[in-house]
Design brief:
CATH architecture of the largest domain: 2-Layer Sandwich
CATH topology of the largest domain: Beta Polymerase, domain 2
Distance between the termini: 41 Å
Radius of gyration: 32 Å
Helix content: 55-70%
Largest sheet: 6 strands, parallel
CATH superfamily of the largest domain: Glutamyl-tRNA reductase, N-terminal domain
Strand content: 5-15%
CATH class of the largest domain: Alpha Beta
Number of strands: 10
Structural class: alpha/beta
Oligomer: single chain
Number of helices: 15
Length: about 425
């Protein structure tokens, strides 16, 4: 039996291929059962995100190519289209890969925390589908505990390294907490969506999304219990906002100094945190001259990100050391499972021989034999039966000059030739 991790990610395949190979949550159970039905696949789990699709299997008398061919077949794609972009990690390398992925060391953004939750979702999906058992189940649990230790023992998740995360982290420095704050997000692209997610996770009190397309604004805001407005409605809502983050493709500024001055009067000069991520700028630079306005540009955030990225890289080196230890611990457990099977078979044989000799001893007692004689027979016969096979193997090893097996036997049976 062997473990295998196989897949594509943002480093090996373009987004067009990743989209075609992704497995939706609606098809995940079907995919898992189909994969687990392959000859030689005893356990299976699948992780599929926007940046990666990975298959984890416990194989028994099966080649990894079986799994890669399945991935192409499931998506009705030619194998030649996928194979050049695939990576394959066997056994110890597979364990290391899972630990690195869960710890955020293999992510597009070093140390990002979302991947651990996605991996837990993959484990739950496999559990629900009945395709995960002792070995993969133990590996996932070991992975989760290692990722938790990385988060606890290193600073890999403490410093923001995305624009959205950096913006929210700076806002938190000003407000401390967000439960009484209102955020106005201008735009509806990926950065604004990620910003909305970070704010929501931090317990934001109220969210307003402004966008040129009102339907898109409503759609994005609804996912975070907010509401959407059009860009022309910004002046009417600006005074409500404690936090303003903007990222649109507008050519001219959407917020100018007079508009913000009017909003400040309506707020009675309570401070406003603003981040202009757009290029060209959405917020007129003159707005930053106003008292009670904390205005940051994308360049300001990049300075924060670069400094924090250095911090994460240092933490990543510490995380790799943790992973080195945890990979060896899991592999030791895995090797021990082979020993468990051997011990189980040894006990089964011993029990079978015990029952044979015990049955004969009972017959002897029933036939009137003296108990002392039966006990002697039982001890002598059982001893001979238990040591017969090892004795034969040791004798043959001696005849063949197999000193390695002889030394192993001495250690296995704790034999001291000097006694």
């Amino acid at each position: 039996m062997s473990l295998i991790a196989l897949g594509i990610n943002h480093r090996t395949a373009p987004v067009e291929l990743r989209e075609r190979v992704a497995i939706s949550s609606e098809r995940m159970a079907e995919a898992l059962r189909d994969l687990a039905s392959l000859p030689g696949v005893s356990e299976a789990a699948i992780l599929s995100t926007c940046n990666r699709t990975e298959v984890y299997c416990d194989l028994q008398d099966s080649e990894p190519h079986t799994v890669s061919r399945w991935l192409a077949r499931f998506h009705q794609l030619e194998p030649e289209l996928i194979h050049p972009h695939l990576y394959r990690y066997p056994d110890e390398e597979a364990v290391r890969h899972l630990l690195r992925v869960a710890g955020g060391l293999d992510s597009m953004i070093l140390g990002e925390p979302q991947i651990l939750g996605q991996m837990k979702g993959a484990y739950q999906a496999a559990s629900d589908a009945g395709t995960i058992n002792a070995r993969l189940g133990r590996l996932f649990q070991h992975t989760f505990s290692t990722a938790k230790r990385i988060r606890t023992d290193t600073a890999i998740g403490e410093s923001p390294v995305s624009v959205a995360f950096a913006a929210v982290s700076l806002a938190k420095q000003i407000f401390g907490e967000f439960k009484r704050q209102t955020a106005l997000l201008i735009g509806a692209g990926e950065t604004i969506e990620l910003t909305a997610r970070h704010l929501s996770e931090q317990g934001l009190g109220r969210l307003v999304v402004a966008n040129r397309t009102l339907e898109r604004a409503h759609c994005l805001a609804a996912g975070f219990n907010g509401y959407g407005i059009g860009l022309d409605e910004i002046p009417a809502h600006l005074a409500e906002a404690d936090i303003v983050i903007s990222a649109t493709g507008a050519i001219e500024p959407l917020l100018d100094k007079p508009m913000v001055e009017k909003a400040l009067r309506g707020r009675k000069h309570r401070p406003v945190f603003m981040v202009d991520i757009a290029v060209p700028r959405d917020i007129d630079a003159a707005v930053g001259e106003l008292e009670d306005i904390y205005l940051y540009t994308v360049d300001d955030l990049q300075e924060v990100i670069q400094e924090n990225l250095k911090s994460r890289e240092q933490a990543a080196r510490q995380a790799e050391e943790i992973i080195d230890v945890q990979v060896e611990r899991f592999m030791a457990w895995l090797r021990a499972q082979d020993g468990v099977a051997t011990i189980r078979e040894l006990r089964r044989q011993a029990e079978h021989r015990r029952q044979e000799v015990l049955a004969k001893a009972r017959q002897m007692l029933a036939g009137g034999k003296e108990p002392q004689q039966v006990i002697e027979f039982l001890a002598h016969t059982l001893t001979n039966k238990l040591i017969h096979d090892p004795s034969v193997q040791i004798r043959q090893a001696a005849e063949c000059g197999n000193t390695e097996l002889l030394l192993a036997a001495q250690e296995l049976f704790n034999l001291n030739r000097g006694d």
